[in-house]
Amino acid sequence: MASMRDIKRRKGSIQSTQQITKAMKLVSTVKLQKAKTRAEETNAYFNYMYQTVHSMLTRSGNISHPYLSGGESKRKAVVVITSNRGLAGGYNSNIVKLVTGSSLPKEDVDIYAIGRKGLEGLEHRGYKIKMDASEVMEAPTYKDAKAICDQILEAYAMGEIGEIYLAYTHFKNTVVHEPRLMKLLPVDISDTEEPEHNGVIMNYEPTEEEALDMIIPKYITSLFYGALVEAVASENGARMQAMDSATSNADEMISDLTLKYNRARQGSITQELTEIIAGANAIS
Amino acid sequence: MAEENKIFDVEIITPDRVFFTGKATMIEFNTAAGEIGVYKNHIPLTTVLAPGVVTITMDDGKKEAAVHSGFAQILSEKVTLLAETAEWPDEIDKKRAEAALERAKERLAQKTENVDYARAELALRRALVRIEVKH
Questions:
Q1: In which domain, by residue range, is B67 found?
Q2: A218, A225, A230, best to mutate vs chain B, most B CBs in 10 Å
Q3: Which residues touch A57 (CB under 8 Å, ≥6 apart)?
Q4: Cα–Cα–Cα angle for B110, B114, B117, nearest 5°?
Q5: CB neighbours of B43 closer than 8 A, spacing ≥ 6?
Q6: A46, A47, A52, A229: which to substitute to probe chain B, counting the most B Cβ within 10 Å?
Q7: Any domain includes A29
Q8: Please, which residues 140-169 of chain A have a Cβ atom closer than 8 Å to chain B?
């Protein structure tokens, strides 16, 4: 049986760990509230953009445009959004698994990493890292999303990459976060079910190509921005959950150790008494 | 009332918030191809926004706002403006806009090579729009 001192020391260390996890939980709860409000505010734009672009494309029939037909290059860009810090349960590893488990061949993938954890995980597994914009994760703004978008679209326009994917964690609600892999370019319109509005044909100004040229980058940027904001909310949600269960696990261990400690204490008292009594008996 | 037939839905949405939703009888804004005014039953049109003033005319008056870049989708019953930034007059800091205007003018006046003219010109236009909305 472990000595009283050992048990006491162990208990002390678990208690101080618990204080840390408790504090982290509180911090991430506050951050989650903020991130959640932001994600909800952004959601409107995100959804409208998605709907508008998709209804626009279904209505406009067959336009041939590089953004819709795809590039010739075999290489695929995957934008991976994770967090910069760990201790968030399965949050980061789920995204890494999503990318490694997808049907995209490893040799053809260029990783555009936003978030250090995802970058490290994928680099370790032998993926090619093309860009690292991890600092954006601290406080994503629309401007950041635009800068990243511009860089990727340039690579697309130059023919370096033929397809663009986005891997992020969708924030469904406080407890459910869903890792998602989305195809951004070429725009996939086959899955839209929206009925053709009485066959109205959309007009474009200036011309179809020019309008698409302007709108598609905005569409991609808004998707990036929406994904960034949702990822921040998911990260804090995941961390809150992880820290919550860590705190309750610590509670369990502490009560277990307290029991053991009391037993050891009682054991030593009993032993001492037995020794004294035995000693007294021997003298008399 | 005849007015009933003229009303359509207007929505202005930015990445940070739903800027405006409501009904209007007319909306005017600046597009890449020039200023346009839209009534109900307009032909379906998608157009690119240029920095400018958006004027929403309703039964009980007018509302003005500054909008910078984005695009508009016009349907017969509904106009949706997806803008990257949109501001009401009372959100605009006039002094800041004027300072930005001065800076942009200065930059455009410089005939050196290391000036990003396109960016300076955009800044100039943004500042002008802000000042115009603010009066």
A1: 2-89
A2: A218
A3: A63, A68, A187, A189, A192
A4: 65
A5: A203, B74, B76
A6: A52
A7: no
A8: 142
In a domain, A245, yes or no: no
Q: Given an 8 Å threshold on Cβ–Cβ distance, is A44 in contact with B13?
A: yes
A48-78 in b/e form (b: 16+ CB < 10 A) is bbeebbbbbbbbbeeeeebbbeebebebbbb
What ipTM was predicted for this assembly? 0.70
Mutate to test the interface with B, among A215, A224, A225 (most CBs of B within 10 A): A215
Q: Is A87 inside any structural domain? A: yes
Residue A189: predicted pLDDT: 62
Residues B57 and B108 in one domain: no
Task: Write out the residue range of the structural domain in which residue A175 sits.
Answer: 63-191+202-238
In angstroms, the CA A73 to CA A64 distance is: 17
**Chain-chain contact of B47 with A222 (C-beta, under 8 angstroms):** no
pLDDT digits (tens, 9 = 90+) for B57-107: 888 788 888 888 888 888 888 888 888 888 888 887 778 887 888 888 877
- pLDDT-based confidence at A274, cuts 50/70/90? very high
- Co-location of B36 and B76 in the same domain: yes
B-contacting residues in A 219-278 (Cβ below 8 Å): 222, 225
Number of folded domains that form chain B: 2
The reported pTM is: 0.80
Residue A244 included in any domain: no
Q: How many domains does chain A have?
A: 1
CATH number for B114: 1.20.5.440
More confident: A199 or A137: A137
CATH code at A158? 3.40.1380.10
Show which residues on chain B lie within 8 Å of chain A, measured between beta carbons: 11, 13-18, 31-33, 43-48, 70-71, 73, 75, 80, 82, 84
- Which tokens is A248 given? 């309750």
* A206 to chain B, closest Cα gap in Å: 7
Q: Are residue B130 and residue B72 in the same domain, yes or no?
A: no
